[in-house]
Specification:
The chain has 16 helices and 8 strands. The protein is of the alpha/beta class.
Length: 464
């Protein structure tokens, strides 16, 4: 049966994209044609509106392709705190990935241990690590310490080997301060950072270590000498006290207390070991944390955490991440310490200066801020040891309690007041007292941050 569809003669055919469409029915009246064209125009308008809505939704999905974005800020002396918080995020949201990467931290932990040992050896040498003669160096070492220093001397080459393996740098590690150059890792070798090594962001040091298992035979051979004879030597502890150096307050230096375990051939880093391991990253860095459970944040998306660095030269903000929720970390114990980069600047004063800069930045005016006052455990230990907070923070009256609860409350009030004074417009601030190496307590804080971000995302999508 022939088709009932009528077509125009070849001479009357027009391109398919011609608008309005050509008249196909020769018996269609002018009024019928206008009515048909009006209906087709309306159908096209509806179709275009649907296409526009779909494109808008697609772009919105691209923008919110991740569960959350956090801009992580902090002073330079908070680098290790920020690193530990990042590891806590990984441990909570992506535990499988965290445990899979634990082996990568094995050489880092060994390097932290070796650098701590070499720091002590350097302190016992005739000249201190800073290049000037130390008060304790004027006292001659007894035979026991002299023999210990001689027997542990090979660890200098172990440190150089581990440093090269992790950072990929071929530059030698110089322990003799008389030959230390400006480019040497020891040019900025400060007691507060005695166990850290710096790598540049994006250097891929984890990738270099992923498929390598290094030998720790030399370190294992010296384990007993390190733990039982050097670190626990009363003269060594006395020299550290005289120099006002508290290595026990450095998380990575706790490996000195557990040398036998971490130097075993079959040693596998525990979560606590990974949290205490220290590698300082120079420059801004992006961290993607995959959400292993869709129940964790409601949509199973990745989290992106931007660390722009804490050095004064790294405190610029990138415009493409200013819609992120920001977190500032600052050490609550910093009241009695100076910056390693500028010994004339108090750490607490520098943290407050950075906080004012963040609060007053107009680009961050619409960003909710999270303040983490970290290392509350060390603050507690220092105050209990008799360190007077009022001697360093003169605005804290001497008749006020020199106790953790009162001091931490005062610190929170200081930062809250600065936030109110310097914010360009009213916005929320969420302060927390934290101990980043306490995984349970930090997990509670992270859960609170997660809830805040989820509420923020839902409010921006008009769901709330």
């Amino acid at each position: 049966m022939p088709s009932a569809t009528r077509s125009l003669p070849p001479s009357r055919k027009e391109p398919e994209d011609t608008w309005p469409p050509p008249l196909e029915l020769s018996d269609e009246t002018l009024e019928e044609r206008e009515l048909r064209l009006e209906k087709e125009r309306e159908a096209k308008r509806v179709s275009d509106a649907i296409d526009l809505a779909l494109n808008t939704e697609r772009e919105a999905l691209k923008k919110n392709a991740h569960g959350a974005k956090i801009l992580l800020l902090g002073a330079i002396h908070c680098a290790c705190s920020k690193s530990t918080v990042l590891k806590n995020f990984m441990l909570k949201f992506s535990p499988t990935t965290f445990h899979a990467e634990a082996e990568i931290w094995r050489p880092v932990i060994h390097l932290n241990l070796v650098r701590s040992v070499n720091f002590i050896l350097n302190l016992l040498s005739p000249r201190s690590a800073s290049g000037s003669t130390s008060p304790t160096a004027n006292s001659p070492l007894d035979d026991t310490l002299r023999r210990l220093c001689f027997s542990l001397a090979p660890l200098k080459s172990v440190e150089m080997s581990l440093t090269k393996r992790i950072s990929g740098s071929a530059s030698p590690v110089v322990l003799d301060s008389s030959t230390t150059s400006a480019d040497s890792p020891y040019a900025h070798y400060h007691p507060a950072k005695a166990s850290e090594i710096s790598v540049r962001s994006g250097a891929g040091w984890k990738g270099l270590l992923k498929f390598r298992r290094h030998s720790n035979a030399s370190l294992r051979a010296h384990a007993q000498t390190i733990s039982l004879r050097l670190w626990r030597n009363p003269d060594v502890q006395e020299k550290l006290r005289e120099e006002d150096i508290s290595l026990k307050n450095q998380p990575a230096c706790t490996f000195l207390e557990d040398v036998a375990r971490i130097t075993q051939e079959d040693y596998f880093p525990s979560p606590d070991d990974v949290l205490r391991a220290r590698v300082s990253t120079i420059g801004p860095e992006e961290h993607r944390i995959p959400m292993e459970s869709s129940l964790e944040n409601g949509n199973g998306k990745d989290w992106i955490i931007y660390d722009v660095g804490g050095d004064r030269s790294q405190r610029g903000l990138s415009s493409n991440i200013l819609d992120s929720l920001s977190a500032l970390l600052t050490d609550s114990i910093a009241f009695n310490q100076a910056l390693a980069e500028d010994e004339t600047v108090n750490r607490l004063a520098d943290s407050m200066k950075l906080w004012r800069m963040i609060c007053s930045n107009p680009l961050l005016a619409s960003v909710d801020l999270i303040l983490l006052l970290n290392k509350i455990d060390i603050l507690d230990a220092q105050l209990k040891a008799g360190v007077q907070f009022s001697n360093y923070v003169t605005s804290y009256k001497k008749d006020l309690p020199n106790e953790t609860a009162a001091v931490s409350r005062y610190l929170l009030e200081m930062f809250t007041s600065l936030h109110k004074q310097h914010s360009t417009k009213k916005r929320k601030m969420h302060p927390h007292l934290t101990c980043a190496i306490d995984t349970k307590a930090t997990a509670t804080v992270i859960t609170h941050i997660q809830e805040l971000i989820l509420i923020k995302i839902l409010s921006e999508t008009s769901i709330l």
